[in-house]
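Translate structure to sequence.
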């Protein structure tokens, strides 16, 4: 394996880990980074971008390991544990159903700079709107207070992330806040919901494109996974501390600025968006 490609894989892993759980869209950043670095525009590169999400998810599992272990141990006799698992499954199902139905069409028609830039900018203004809501609108302070209906609503909002540039984390966190969840509850549930969603997407992508992969690709994927894990672990721990006393307003302005960057780089030929 070319050393230069391994370095590029490490950079892509870092980009994935740092952007996956922030409300700024990892997809848009990976498209930009992959085009600037080169070597990730073919089918194998697209699978790589999805597969390295598994490294980021491993970081979430480790950060929340105690909660996940307690939940697994309590499934037999703990009502709270069973309700938690049920809520995650309910939130996960809409993405599975709509992804299978519309995923191919979305990829074929919506991966354009106009769409991505628009969702970045619109998403930024939605974050600004969500952060201006009065405290009286918050119904759910902790994840364990969520009802199955709350979980379903967040799961439906997560489906908006199928549109590139929207951000899975952004749609679930900000959508959850607009639905009455506290910033902490929305962020925690977004992380928990990411576990089945991203692992499922990664495994499905690897299986679907298995003929395009070879044993020689293992080092490339391993490096991407490793650096995705490390950067995501740092990012998740930082974000949990950040939301305790800060809002998402800086991310809103970042999204708006990045949307403008997307347009400029696309129409000057710096970034190639076509498959």
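Result:
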């Amino acid at each position: 394996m070319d050393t230069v490609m391994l370095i590029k894989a490490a950079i892509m892993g870092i980009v994935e880990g740092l952007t996956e759980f922030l409300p700024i869209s990892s997809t848009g950043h990976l498209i930009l980074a992959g085009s600037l670095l080169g070597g990730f525009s073919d089918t194998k590169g697209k699978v790589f971008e999805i597969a390295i999400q598994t490294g980021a998810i491993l970081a979430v599992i480790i950060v929340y390991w105690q909660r996940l272990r307690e939940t697994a141990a309590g499934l037999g006799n703990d009502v709270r544990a069973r309700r938690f698992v049920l809520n995650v499954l309910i939130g996960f199902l809409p993405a599975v159903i709509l992804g299978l139905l519309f995923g191919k069409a979305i990829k074929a028609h919506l991966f354009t700079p106009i769409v991505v830039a628009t969702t970045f900018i619109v998403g930024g203004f939605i974050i600004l709107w969500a952060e201006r809501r009065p405290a009286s609108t918050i119904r759910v302070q902790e994840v364990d207070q969520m009802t199955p209906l709350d979980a379903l609503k967040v799961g439906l909002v997560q489906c908006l992330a199928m549109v590139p540039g929207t951000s899975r984390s952004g749609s679930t966190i900000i959508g959850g806040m607009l639905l009455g969840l506290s910033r902490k509850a929305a962020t925690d549930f977004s992380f928990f919901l990411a576990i089945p969603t991203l692992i499922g997407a990664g495994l499905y992508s690897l299986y679907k494109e298995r003929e395009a992969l070879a044993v020689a690709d293992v080092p490339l994927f391993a490096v991407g996974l490793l650096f995705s894990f490390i950067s995501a672990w740092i990012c998740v721990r930082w974000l949990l501390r950040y939301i305790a006393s800060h809002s998402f307003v800086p991310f809103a302005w970042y999204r708006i600025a990045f949307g403008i960057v997307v347009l400029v780089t696309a129409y000057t030929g710096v970034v190639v968006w076509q498959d």
